[in-house]
Amino acid sequence: MKLRYLALGLALAGGTATLGLALTTNWYLEPVPPALAGVSDWSPDALPPTPAAPTGLNPLSDMAPGAWSAIARQTAPRLVPIPQVAPVAQPPLTIWSRALASGETLDALLREAGLNGQVRAEAALALGAEFDLRRLRPGNELSVTTTPGGELRSVALGVENGVVIEAIFGDSTTTRTLNPNPQTRVMAGEAIIDSSMFEALEKANLPARFAVDLAQMLGGTVDFRRELRGGEKLQVLWREARLDDKRLGEPEITYAALTMGGSLYEVVWPDDGTGRATIYADGEVLRIFAQPVDGARLSSVYGQRRHPVYGNMRMHTGVDFAAARGTPVRATAPGRISYVGWRGGYGRVVEIAHGANTMTRYAHLGAVADGIAPGQRVDAGDMIGNVGSTGTATGPNLHYEVRVDGRPTDPMSDERLAAAAADENEDALADARLNDARARFETYLASAPSTETNERL
Fold it and tell me: 32: which DSSP letter?
């Protein structure tokens, strides 16, 4: 019976397979519809020929659209990060600085800065190559730069008028002079004299040293001790060199006016470098004085004084002008050279004869100008030498004398010398200088914010 069921199953399976094969064969042999036959005939268009290599100056512009993108993707450079190199750390430097005190030496300051004997000698030698160390003065600033190990890097010495002498040490030593580039400021102010000119200037915060300049300039015209009553007005116009709001050198007065006893006294210093100051009384020329040293400070006046070297009271037969060594010295009036040479405590001197009985003497000179010899004629303002400290002198200065008939007289009041300095055209020039000075004073006084900003000197 089991065999009968098995035979029946096989028969049914075979019949089913035969029927499926017959149906499949018949479907494949049916004709294809026309629409489907058209679709089956489609084939893609042939590719365009490869373009020739571009020959223009800009090959990329000749490429087919999209071609550059493909090339760029294949040839783009690979970005590789550059490693960062850390900067080499420099060791910190130590800067030591201090001003030279009275009685101290350069070597003492270098020792205090921690330098040994050999290095101190090298530093002094380097600075001395650019600056005469004998000219060191209290207040000169020394700056020393060293490494943590004490090795010297540089030495800087600040001297007068903002000049710095710098020595740099390394594989070799280099020394140079650094000159400042100051700005010139013109300033104006006025003061009321209650008791003395000095106190009036100081109270108004104006340069108090102008009291000495004006007293000597007007000393032969005005008796300040007897004629000052109080309430006199003093007006001054001056210029000074400034560097970073620090004053360099001494201020130079260019105009002054003093109302006293119903009269107006004025002094005008020109800008032509001659130093020929003109003194006016009520607008009329009273005297002309050619200052022998431009921009110098009047350090000692005519008359009895305690001698700075010997210490006793002596007659000072002239006036002294303190100035830097080498500053030009000029003749104060026209005349003829009468003597060039050495006169004891006067040191090196030049003497000029003005007429038959008047002579000017210029002493303590460091040198005499080329061509200056006895018999030569000079005019007011001509250079005859330069400032020095020859003879009996405590420092560089000019001792200036006026002698009449062989006897000394006050250089600031002698009328004979003033007459010798005048010429035919002086009156017209003097009027022009006075009007210009008055106008400049009014302009700068009106623009000055306040005299409180002026330094006391």
Answer: P
* Cα of 188 vs its chain's centroid, Å: 23
- What's the pLDDT at 168? 93
Q: Which residues of the chain have pLDDT under 70?
A: 1-91, 216, 219-220, 272-276, 289-290, 295-298, 300-301, 304-313, 412-427, 449-457
As a whole number of angstroms, the distance between CA 450 and CA 193 comes to 19
Looking at residue 221, what DSSP letter applies?
T
Distance CA 176, CA 455 (A): 31
C-alpha 113/C-alpha 144 separation (Å) is 7
DSSP class of residue 160 equals G
Strand 94-99 vs strand 141-146: parallel, antiparallel, or unpaired?
A: antiparallel
The residues, any chain, with a CB within 8 Å of residue 215's CB and separated by 6 or more, are: 197, 224
Predicted confidence at residue 74, as pLDDT, reads 58
C-beta of residue 411 within 8 angstroms of C-beta of residue 302: yes
Question: In the structure encoding, which two tokens stand for residue 407, read together?
Answer: 């006897």
What SS3 class is residue 306? Answer: strand
List, in sequence order, every residue forming a beta bridge with 99; answer none if it has no partner. Answer: 141
Please name each of the domains of the chain with its CATH number.
Answer: 94-178 (3.10.450.350), 181-293+413-457 (3.10.450.350), 303-411 (2.70.70.10)
- Three-state SS annotation for 100-151: CCCCCCHHHHHHHCCCCHHHHHHHHHHHHCCCCHHHCCCCCEEEEEECCCCC
Q: Please name which of 347, 349, 352, 346 lies closest in space to residue 331, comparing C-alpha atoms.
A: 352
Amino acid at position 398, single letter: L
- DSSP notation for 384-414: EEEEB--SS-SSSEEEEEEEETTEEE-TTT-
Closest CA to 265 of 293, 302, 223, 207: 223
| Amino acid, single-letter form, for residue 105 | T
The amino acid present at 190, given as its one-letter code, is E
Which residues, 6+ apart, have CB-to-CB distance to 201 below 8 Å? 191, 207, 208, 210, 211, 234, 236
Tokens of 441: 């004073």
